[in-house]
């Protein structure tokens, strides 16, 4: 008899393995037993970013906690491509959209950056990390990308890893072909703010030996749309969509 994979997926910060007991936090217990109405004997899928996905059974259900027990691994651990997404935060809902869609589309790390024209000077890193976790739960991933705190773009580029290529989306090239060098290895994508890059930022980016300017079609895109478009171009050219 084929055992169906449970529809509910839950990220846990706990080792997973055969017959491993997993305790639930109050928030997790509320979600499973209060919101989803699960009871003892129900099954969920667990993942922790290291041990793949596991089918687990509810062995104890309570309002403020509970216990699950791993029964069988349902998927091996997989990682997205070694791709970072750098983006300038915009309005709250659109920033949330960028984080969620980048997880769904497959990135290894998410880095909000402050540029000359960035609208926001601060972010709620913990809230964005929670959005990344929820996106991984929804899309079937076994890995949750780290969402870092806000970095100044100039400082980040000043300490850039030598082996990581950078694709930056330059609205000044609108209408030109979207071409990338077929260079394997680590990459990053940089999406500018709604006001675009400053002239100084654009000049410095073009001067970097590891940076590659790319156009995203004939029209200037909104920042959240640009993130999805850029990720699509990279994934179909160099990533795991090939």
TrEMBL record:
Catalyzed reaction equations: uridine(1498) in 16S rRNA + S-adenosyl-L-methionine = N(3)-methyluridine(1498) in 16S rRNA + S-adenosyl-L-homocysteine + H(+)
Boundaries of each Ribosomal RNA small subunit methyltransferase E PUA-like domain copy? 24-65
Q: Is S-adenosyl-L-methionine tagged as a keyword?
A: yes
Molecular function (GO) terms for this protein are: rRNA (uridine-N3-)-methyltransferase activity
- Keyword Secreted: yes or no? no
Record domain Ribosomal RNA small subunit methyltransferase E methyltransferase: where: 80-235
Provide the alphabetized UniProt keywords: Cytoplasm, Methyltransferase, rRNA processing, S-adenosyl-L-methionine, Transferase
Q: Which PANTHER family match?
A: 16S RRNA (URACIL(1498)-N(3))-METHYLTRANSFERASE, RIBOSOMAL RNA SMALL SUBUNIT METHYLTRANSFERASE E
Family statement: Belongs to the RNA methyltransferase RsmE family.
Q: Which protein, by its recorded name, is this?
A: Ribosomal RNA small subunit methyltransferase E
Q: Which organism is it from?
A: Antarctobacter heliothermus
Lineage, opening ranks: Bacteria, Pseudomonadati, Pseudomonadota, Alphaproteobacteria, Rhodobacterales
